Fold each of these.
Amino acid sequence: MRAVGILGGMGPAAGADFVRLFVQACTRHLQDRGLPVHDQAYPEHWLVQLPMPDRTQALRRDPQSPEGPAAHLLQGAGRLAALGVRSVALACNTAHAWHGQIQAFFPQLRVLHIAQQTALYLKAGGARQALVLATDGTYDSGLYDAALADCGIAALRPGQAGRARLMQGIYEGVKQGDMPLAMQCFGEVLAPLLQHHGAVPVIMGCTEIPLALPQAPQACGAELVDPAWILACALAQDAYAH
Amino acid sequence: MRAVGILGGMGPAAGADFVRLFVQACTRHLQDRGLPVHDQAYPEHWLVQLPMPDRTQALRRDPQSPEGPAAHLLQGAGRLAALGVRSVALACNTAHAWHGQIQAFFPQLRVLHIAQQTALYLKAGGARQALVLATDGTYDSGLYDAALADCGIAALRPGQAGRARLMQGIYEGVKQGDMPLAMQCFGEVLAPLLQHHGAVPVIMGCTEIPLALPQAPQACGAELVDPAWILACALAQDAYAH
């Protein structure tokens, strides 16, 4: 087994939930192979949650600003590398705007890419289009558009009002612990989009969205895709790889 | 804010849940003080989950065996210390049998003690007796008996058959992902004890127990005390202390 790392704090609740998903992905890995499940069967893993400057704001202003997240992401990844981890997952979609920079700095690490992993998963399932729910920062960076296009999948997104309501659900809802508000915002954005586009896979492309959308009544019956779960499975696979 | 650490892997699901509790305790800390809640308001925190030899087995045989958890606990704590954390929580009750050893090795760390924190909490609430549900290892080590006695609280425990059923719920239930079995085991132990002792606080003295007991019908209306939550609050307090 290889030691792996999780770079979080974006936000902290989503980072904590990502560890839960990773442990669950490891359990699934063991069970699928008929291996015994006990404490000692899990790989060494590290989570660091740093007070990280806002990603969307930095992308809107200057992604390389010394006040932005770039330096914090690099020091977090550097300390994970020093601990001997081999693969790292970024527990934040928007932070993937700095993925290439982190990967280039630390060639000894494999930095997994949440949108590429998600696109590969959807491609394997035969999807031709997918609805992306994300932060403004993630939309601006074209993170999912590029990864989905590489797999021949068209990316659909809400209009401007819907995007503003998503940001409200993320920032005033989940990040401030107001889950009813988050459910309401996310559900209201989803309903008309599903009505318009039909039953397309819904990518919950911000780690805060899966903490509230699945409980919204408008999400009932929708094909919700959690990129954090897909990323957690990819990290578990790396941890168990020889 | 001070960086803090969590030493987990005992088991990994409980360690992941402890991070969730810590983040929730930080949110509560901020809200109680009317401070704004956003990603940057959370302290730096680290979780390490190591493949850790079984604690109860080691206590039954030789607590200082090189195959036991002592060396692993010390290397985990040592790496957390090297990362600059100031306070550490052990996300496992039974592992507190090695608390004194870890604390003595790393005087630069404050290693919180789950049973002492729980006893202080119950004392503040005026409790005179409490029911302890735990592993054989924790019972053998007298962890809660000593901490509760220091606070003038009598420790009640299940008989031998009940203790064996708790171990089954922990090892065959939670640690193997079989939550219905865990709920059944924990609930069956609790019901006759509450009938016999009346409405006493119930200390869920193994980090696996709160993952299943609260959902058991027999626990409905019981005063369940989660030492992991109390420990998470103490760690949050250290992180925000000046």
Note: The mean pLDDT of chain A is 95.
Amino acid sequence: MKIKSPLQIAREKYAPKVPAALKGSVKVVEGDKTQSVADQGEIEKMFPNTYGMPILSFEASDEKKNFPAMNVGVILSGGQAPGGHNVISGLFDGLKTLNSDSKLFGFLGGPSGLTDNEYKELTSDIIDEYRNTGGFDIIGSGRTKLEEESQFDQTLENCKKLDIKALVIIGGDDSNTNAAVLAEYFAAKNAGVQVIGVPKTIDGDLKTDMIETSFGFDTACKVYSELIGNIQRDANSAKKYYHFIKLMGRSASHIALECALQAQPNVAIISEEVEAKNMTLDQVVDQIVEVVVKRAEKGENFGVVLVPEGLVEFIPAMKALIAELNDMLAKYENEVNALDSNKERREFVAGKLSAESSKVFTGLPNSFANQLLLDRDPHGNVQVSMIDTEQLLSDMVKSRVKKLKKEGKFNGKFSGQSHFFGYEGRCAAPSNFDADYTYSLGRTAAVLIANGKTGYMASVRNLTAPADEWIAGGVPVTMLMNMERRHGAMKPVIQKALVKLDGKPFKTFAESRKEWGENTEFVYPGPIQYFGPTEVCDQTTKTLQLEK
Amino acid sequence: MKIKSPLQIAREKYAPKVPAALKGSVKVVEGDKTQSVADQGEIEKMFPNTYGMPILSFEASDEKKNFPAMNVGVILSGGQAPGGHNVISGLFDGLKTLNSDSKLFGFLGGPSGLTDNEYKELTSDIIDEYRNTGGFDIIGSGRTKLEEESQFDQTLENCKKLDIKALVIIGGDDSNTNAAVLAEYFAAKNAGVQVIGVPKTIDGDLKTDMIETSFGFDTACKVYSELIGNIQRDANSAKKYYHFIKLMGRSASHIALECALQAQPNVAIISEEVEAKNMTLDQVVDQIVEVVVKRAEKGENFGVVLVPEGLVEFIPAMKALIAELNDMLAKYENEVNALDSNKERREFVAGKLSAESSKVFTGLPNSFANQLLLDRDPHGNVQVSMIDTEQLLSDMVKSRVKKLKKEGKFNGKFSGQSHFFGYEGRCAAPSNFDADYTYSLGRTAAVLIANGKTGYMASVRNLTAPADEWIAGGVPVTMLMNMERRHGAMKPVIQKALVKLDGKPFKTFAESRKEWGENTEFVYPGPIQYFGPTEVCDQTTKTLQLEK
């Protein structure tokens, strides 16, 4: 017997809130023609059938339209994000509302399900088991990239077998880029299969004016902020540890920034700033040490430091070092492996690096330098994602304050604890916001499909207003694209949304951080609430509120 | 300006539920005389003034009694636990209800506040800021032990200065033991200061028939179970990792057991069972490998394994090894430090150990053996609390399945991730249960004080019933005591409540674990809810429900 927790049972009954326009018949209103964010000429040439389409918004309508029954396929692509199941239940309900004979097929295990024709029909029995739940387990996910024409042809063949007229691809920037390429390929071939994308990623780096946030970001940040708040309260009670907390999000620091805005820790490193200021690892450490010293002067020998997962790759000197190491370790693999001790290995490697990188390398704590040499992936590359940046910073701060103590410049104590939060938030049950937003995205995708659209991403905007006032519609994926170098060749891709240093969220943080650093201004967000007062249960992220 | 989260603001208004008997005038009913759990003769001799007192229970009464105003002191002792602030607010409200001129003084930073006379008066302005919040930051906590007569005399002197008639000591088994000794000392001297204990610890190892649970256990387990559930959902979605999750709780496995009952992971190691069965580390690994192999046969190469923090010390062979290492490293410190490489150090050490321990030591993964040699505290002892047991088990399972693969006995994949949850739960805002329970304990302590009691622990029982039906009263601390060897001498101490292998919670787990292991029967408890339906918000732990 399948056992459920009381909260699981209570949440099954939750009816997600949707924009007013999605409650009855929908009129699709066309806006202005669009352009890509950059490289318009090149992108237009590559997407002759799907470039320049207008922005779409939905309005409530009295007109009853009849839609033919149709079969639709859906996949989940890439890392989990809270709300994926609600996109699918929204899509299911949307299709059934338009024509109860329509069918939804879920392809299993991500994009490879499409090419391998692994699928199951999603019936209401199945859908009802997954409403408002976290995870991607309803059909699984995967990281196969849909990029080759042979994959596209295979996908088309499999769609034809099931008489599928439209595919919905729920994924991040890469998956939506591939969705756009697939849409264009099918349109060029007149294949009769539409493709619609849905913006997913807890990292928050898939956004524009039209895609105000990707789903899952809200819930994941709330889970991490709950934990950060709890640890802050512990730090402030025990008064003896500095907690270094690494947060998921390799290619942008939106999560660290949002959590900082929610919890007001003593330090939050923002990778984009580190890169923009061309900071060294030592300078990042300086920034933390300065806070530690200031707090010690007030007798406060505790605190919390947030570290974005991708930090090391944003430090220009570290990035250069890692690139050199990758080349060099490939070249001298046997020599390095033949050496007896880590010390000899470090010395050998330091002798082969450029003067600049050698200086950076020898300045690293030994344990970290060893990790760079030993933890390599099957291609011999340094595994950046396995670097314990939080531990590294803690160790470096420790040795720095020890030195300051000897010099009489530090009178406090320093003891570090490190944490990494990622898996704790990716599959949390969606907050009310994410449950509503994802369900609305699914309903939106159904309307786009019924109206024959392809190459669009489902879009629900005006998200800081009550759900009733949200604006549903579609955004041409090509509108988000520019040309970037990938694996040596220029490719059309969705531009990643990094933290903007002149944006309101970062500026708000930057204005307060001195005070948060020196004083103890911790905020305790607590766990996600589903049933309480609306200001507790339905507020979205600070990032979104500030960007509005 | 102090900023609060919307949930912090909403929770300020929560009025904790209390037993019916605490709502008006209280009649204190004496039950039977009591005996200590063991060593009655010795304990009675050591506590001539406070041994054998009756159990007390409170009943509602029509009789209005007048109580004189009195000054009371309170301390928080040891590790944080959710609800500590509510004990203090309950105590404050209780004292003020009995006589509005009574005063409450909080001694700062734990027991050392008592001896150093560091205190602040807790006024309603201060109390109101901390109602229903997590943490111990209202007055701080500390780990100083109150054991020496000189400390007792200093405490008495400081109490006299403030005209304090009673002390409330909020702490775990050690702190309550010391509270009893202090109560006896004051009683013997006719000092005029009563001492009341309050049972605190997230570890859940302070309990008897009369103390059904220590406060904080409920909230901490719920936070950990939320995270375990989220990680389980991730494991079941990504289908590629085994997550090894270490949980706080060194001296007992109640937390791991409760979380297992809540979330139904694939494996949960219970230290008490490992010790009772005299298992080796290899046998613990076997137990996990068996599940991994069975699941792989079904194509499920993912799962979740719970590991109690104290595991290594419960493995008899490891305990013996660590004891030998402590002696040996003290003796050969210089020789070991003079060696050049970890390999040489391991070989040197292995040669000096007993045959049995040497075998255990050389069977350990190198990185773990190195950790045992390198991470020592200032006294040269191996730091058991720093051992990454979760990583150790993951590494050992990995190498075992690799071997099985070579032998053709394992066809799956294995990839481990490790986590440690402790600080995430110790200072969480208390669940409704813990908020109600701790507030009631504080109110109970006030009644015990007003009625002249000393050497009692505040007790609130019948906790699986609605709060209205809870039974408040007092239990003589001596009732919980036996004689144990501490630092070479026999001492009267509160008997630690380990997981009982013949108790209902463990037996329930043991009956289901095969099924939970081979199948995927994850339950997702989700975050603590404060405002929803009562079955979601007010249920206490499975452990307590099963013990009833």
Note: Chain A touches chain B through 58 residues (CB under 8 Å).
Amino acid sequence: MSKQTSCCAPLAREPIGKDDAAELAKVLKAVADPVRLRLLSLIAARDEDTCVCDLLPEFDLSQPTISHHLKILREAGLIESERRGTWVYSWVIPQALDRLSALFTTAPAETGAR
Amino acid sequence: MSKQTSCCAPLAREPIGKDDAAELAKVLKAVADPVRLRLLSLIAARDEDTCVCDLLPEFDLSQPTISHHLKILREAGLIESERRGTWVYSWVIPQALDRLSALFTTAPAETGAR
């Protein structure tokens, strides 16, 4: 069902291993596209699940093209989608975004030794 | 000299504009590669500037290939490099990493009104 994301320590804290780098590169490829970045942002910035019908007017692209981009975001584990009647609704997976945020952080590690 | 990074609000806070999305996609493309992600991490995790001679043993790649990947990271504004005698030394630009970290954060905005 849900993709488990085992890693990730911030890349500035310790060198990323080969396997983690390969897996993270796939996720980053999914967001390394202007349309997909905007789609992800439009979906993430909403308080409720986002209908593809609300995304279409934001782009000068066909519905199949938008659906294809959404599929790439879904396969990268960044969003989930569900058909409800005529339309498909999408929402982000916050843990997937938090993981990318943590990857790039340069903030010092919290020293919560106990 | 240094690239000014005008944006970015977290993508979950408000929809990214077209221009910001295009520019950010370029930076993300630079890190959406396993070798470059590892290079960036190896450089960022060091306390001092990193000699390309210390990066080479970590990869089964030629020096020109490593240098090419470093050039892509440099052109994306993620690292800086400088020749010192025989070798090139690199270091990360923390603001560039922090910007990516902020982009993906889902933490609520701080309400520091004053």
Note: The mean pLDDT of chain B is 90.
Amino acid sequence: FPIFQEKHEMPVTATLADRLLSTRSHSEALCQPLQTEDYVVQPIEDVSPPKWHLGHTTWFFEEFVLKPFVPGYSVFHEDYAFVFNSYYESLGERVIRANRGNLSRPSVQGVYKYRRHVTEKLMEFLEGEVPAEACDLVEVGIHHEQQHQELLLTDIKYILGNNPLLPAYSDCGPEEFPKLGAAEWITVPGGHYDIGHRGEGFCFDNELGRHQVLLGDFEIASLPVTNRDMLDFIADGGYRRFDLWHAEGWDWVNREGIRAPLYWHERDGQWQYYTLKGLQPVDPEAPLAHISFYEAYALAEWKGFRLPTEFEWEAAQEAFGWGNRWEWTGSAYLPYPGYRKAPGALGEYNGKFMVSQHVLRGASVATPHGHSRPTYRNFFHPHLRWQYTGLRLAR
Amino acid sequence: FPIFQEKHEMPVTATLADRLLSTRSHSEALCQPLQTEDYVVQPIEDVSPPKWHLGHTTWFFEEFVLKPFVPGYSVFHEDYAFVFNSYYESLGERVIRANRGNLSRPSVQGVYKYRRHVTEKLMEFLEGEVPAEACDLVEVGIHHEQQHQELLLTDIKYILGNNPLLPAYSDCGPEEFPKLGAAEWITVPGGHYDIGHRGEGFCFDNELGRHQVLLGDFEIASLPVTNRDMLDFIADGGYRRFDLWHAEGWDWVNREGIRAPLYWHERDGQWQYYTLKGLQPVDPEAPLAHISFYEAYALAEWKGFRLPTEFEWEAAQEAFGWGNRWEWTGSAYLPYPGYRKAPGALGEYNGKFMVSQHVLRGASVATPHGHSRPTYRNFFHPHLRWQYTGLRLAR
Amino acid sequence: FPIFQEKHEMPVTATLADRLLSTRSHSEALCQPLQTEDYVVQPIEDVSPPKWHLGHTTWFFEEFVLKPFVPGYSVFHEDYAFVFNSYYESLGERVIRANRGNLSRPSVQGVYKYRRHVTEKLMEFLEGEVPAEACDLVEVGIHHEQQHQELLLTDIKYILGNNPLLPAYSDCGPEEFPKLGAAEWITVPGGHYDIGHRGEGFCFDNELGRHQVLLGDFEIASLPVTNRDMLDFIADGGYRRFDLWHAEGWDWVNREGIRAPLYWHERDGQWQYYTLKGLQPVDPEAPLAHISFYEAYALAEWKGFRLPTEFEWEAAQEAFGWGNRWEWTGSAYLPYPGYRKAPGALGEYNGKFMVSQHVLRGASVATPHGHSRPTYRNFFHPHLRWQYTGLRLAR
Amino acid sequence: FPIFQEKHEMPVTATLADRLLSTRSHSEALCQPLQTEDYVVQPIEDVSPPKWHLGHTTWFFEEFVLKPFVPGYSVFHEDYAFVFNSYYESLGERVIRANRGNLSRPSVQGVYKYRRHVTEKLMEFLEGEVPAEACDLVEVGIHHEQQHQELLLTDIKYILGNNPLLPAYSDCGPEEFPKLGAAEWITVPGGHYDIGHRGEGFCFDNELGRHQVLLGDFEIASLPVTNRDMLDFIADGGYRRFDLWHAEGWDWVNREGIRAPLYWHERDGQWQYYTLKGLQPVDPEAPLAHISFYEAYALAEWKGFRLPTEFEWEAAQEAFGWGNRWEWTGSAYLPYPGYRKAPGALGEYNGKFMVSQHVLRGASVATPHGHSRPTYRNFFHPHLRWQYTGLRLAR
Ligand SMILES: [Fe+3]
Ligand SMILES: [Fe+3]
Ligand SMILES: [Fe+3]
Ligand SMILES: [Fe+3]
């Protein structure tokens, strides 16, 4: 089963066409273990059907590359823009997000046919002389599809992990559980630090506007928080102590009846954890995953420490390993100084979400190879936890 | 395509085993035109995934026949009772109805395997000496599966008819549209009429308790209301005149933005109707379908007439043809005199729904052959209209 | 404290003007024990602020009598129709029911001023020569105000009884608790019974259309069910036994966390009951009150009996005492044969509610003297229980 | 009518007791124009009944000063803690916020009695020797009551301004409308700025942790945005152009049907604005008020500028006048470096709200004299707009 080895095989110097093809087939490889039925369902609004991800990433290329740059290109199916547009208001009406799981058609086969068609047209297009703007858009499309690859995997986990039969996704899925030793405090001196993307490589617009920030002295943990801390937090009644929580978090805990991270099941007094390989005992040495910002905050409070800001994280990140869990930071998702939205539909990519969300830094076991970087800004609403989300302490 | 011919082929004198087998395969034949994805989705709570119907009707036989009567029978899969129990509280926990569409597993293939297994065990069982009580339960199971066959078809129609691609179910589906001529008034003299099931044949418990009712003189239409009346009602602003509606119906119209029957689409000033063969112009001669009780009442008000009671319908039914549309009556669904629920789980079949619903009489194009009879009492909440529901006028 | 004696003082032969004046002042007498703040709040949608009842019953006379029949009458305040119209769609826009408790103005004093103004104009009008139609409308207005007097008292009970301070309404409120002895079965022979209003006296349109019904033999209890039965039902786990409930009722019990009648509080293992005089121990001999139709049905199931139909109740009512509790019947609220709505706004009075509700017969301690009669049809949705609702068994 | 003159009369050097008494009577003076009914209602969850504010600010003193520091003090009424606790989880159960408007009792008179009792006990207490900690708590109580004075006025505006009669609060309310001329850009050089409270005076814990921030060069408007800009924004279709809005803001606009600021009414093509003096034409020269963060952001987008951060605002504030409107900033409400919650119930004052809210700076016409300062951090959820909220542009 070759899904996750593959990520190391594509050299950075690969051509755009090579990287496109590799990205396109990686999405399909991720779906290889699925049964047709798994492609269709949407158990909660935040989780999209795998079929939809496959179609939507394809539509993105059709809409932003083939339609504007390939003379005479006619769309594969005129209704697909309606079905597979995610949220681009500039591009017309769309299926409401909560209804994606109501659509049995287009069929899975139909979507694969759509993918092949668009991939082929793109490859043909890239064989010719390609304007720089189009190259940039293909690049955006690749990174866009990589983002959806992570969602694909976390959505699959949600679909299977909330099925009463708890079926495994694969015997050799991506969830390795490194045994983490004891974390140490890394001391970072205060001063001026440069924040934001630098250099030639690809980045999203929300990373641009490199600027200096002034930080005070701080310490940051060398390792993320492990399940051991969560087990102790639970044992100490952490989910029942309002003083550890934000008011909003406390409401969430009570309204939703939360008493453990997502995918944790108590069976005969033992905590089990649903992984892509099926149910397994919670490993105290493994990094904690699937917690909301509220839980990250409460856990840090309980430990007597705090979350780092996204600037502290970026300033310190060379000094520690990261990439196994997205790490909640104490920073709200806001524009960097001088941020301006791109014109047109791509301007809707990031900017319009810059309110009411929190920044996560790092990457996770589900992030495609080469998709993250030290300046990458991931963001989610504070109650969400179906991504591989954890935390790192600071003080 | 043999689905709907089949219904005429089974003689009444067929053995129980023959009828069981025929019923079991008819459910599967109904699903033959589906793609795997169509089996899975649940666009609204009332509509169940076809896969679920196939599994649930199977579980019913396993639970009520195989488990109690076949010594040493072990269930096909221990979690299936949880997945496929519909509402029998006596039989333990179950998947909440609204969540049926979140389940990608068991797969369609898995469900067919389950069906084959249970059908085979039932056939083996029926080859031996079968206690009378078990025969009765097989009989109930057959009628139960027939009820679900109708739901299967109406749920499939909803799934496909609410897909933005509006795919057809089949080129030769069951929706024929007889051209109805002008209805005539049939005069029925007042007096005593016997109501309720008589004789040896199968019926549900809600038809029992045959009793006399006293009716006044009345007239009832020889034909159901056609689309022509609905077109006129719409043209006359019927959906915007509160005086024609129940208060509850008027709230429903406004809250849901109702302005035509279900499956009606206005395209370029013309009314189109989604049928199992795809979108077609509304045929003014065809019997009206897919209306709620509220709409039936408002339409009758607008015509200056009324709905018949279920007793009037039953008393008069020999004088007119019926079977194309379920006909809303003016009667609430209540127990007949002397009605007692059966003991045990089967007691949950009908009795516990006898509040807040209205009775429909007759049958529809989607009702399996032999499933209806003059005393049959169908019932739905007044806002529902995804069945083939129409009305017949009285005065 | 003269509120409830007063009801016996008005002889049937009193003039219309006398009865009008008496009715108007009775509404005000009912509010005498209130503090200004009590007039304003609306803890749930079904409960209206007392101030609103006082204004609405006044608006009714202004709208249906003064405006059409008094030449040159100009309305007291042009916005009051908007504020005090309840549901008459024919009469224009209105405050949405759920928002009545948001209105601090018009003030209580303003409403009393409005009442005085309208009452005076009505009295002047009745001194002159009054067309028969206007007399009828004054009559309707009196009965309308009497209906609201009952709601006034039950809404006041809800407002005070859901306040954490549990204040008493009055030391000598209307809730007497007769000690009921053991009920006996009254045998009623089957046959033809006349149902519906007869004679000259006032009745609502839903009682008209006197007609014969055919009833079987039945027995009906001489007394309503007492608190003792409810105490036993609770002790026997009645609220946790799904087999006793309608499916809809069982959902209601679980969704709302119902475990006793409304106003019952368990304190130190004893059941207390909030009355208009304050909290008191539940008296096992007193007739049960404040239960929903679902609870009435479940309690009857548990006793092994059933609710009478409204026809059985009417046929038998001379043989037993009634009037202390509204008695849930097994009948849905539907039109009598030949029922037609009145033209105009008054046509909205009853007819548009004839769906999804159940009939109650009798009267209650809160019903104004002379307001009920054997053919009176009260109706509520099956989950409501803030009226003085109980039940009588049949078999 | 002396309410708003009073604010200039209390010299800074007044004793604690003087200031306490002055604060207590100011709350009552604010309510002087109310009718009893106005004290009771709660039209939306965010708006509390005036009666509740009067009781809650009193309870705060009783709970945090009298109970711990006055030997033998017994509470005025044992149920008041339940009724008047706002959100202090450490202090036990409380009335759910949404239900405050359901409580007709304690009566307004009862609450005034409660106020007098507690104020007297406090004054007696302050005559003796008072521990420093108690002084601090009285100080907190004064500032707490001042915060509620602003809410009292904005809640009263909401209660009256959403009444269909649109009654005025007072002929000489606090809403003056200065004629603003043309704004100018104030240039602020980048560099290090000190942020946070300094010195001896009172501040809330969220202002502490004075620290340096590094800002780039920026310009900030000398005046807040006026109604003229909003009128132009509306005329230009600003409420219908999704590209100007956050995704969340756009959902809000569509879900709530927003098309103008709160309290704006279009009458015969003219925009009217409900003020505390009643309905008045929108004055184009007056500072814009009653907008959400979403609207502030969209308006700034439409102008081609942006909101200042709270740090830019604080760094620049000496160069411009402020105090007429709370000004939305681009900053999320987050803790300053080193922020720790106070121990005990007071720790719930600010810290637990530091998620999902945005910071406003300045003060408004409704802010009590002496309650604001350049480091004051006000905060609200982005959709709220019943405060006097406006914006100032930056670039
Ligand atoms: Fe996307
Ligand atoms: Fe079933
Ligand atoms: Fe009324
Ligand atoms: Fe407070």
Note: Chains A and C do not touch (no CB pair under 8 Å).
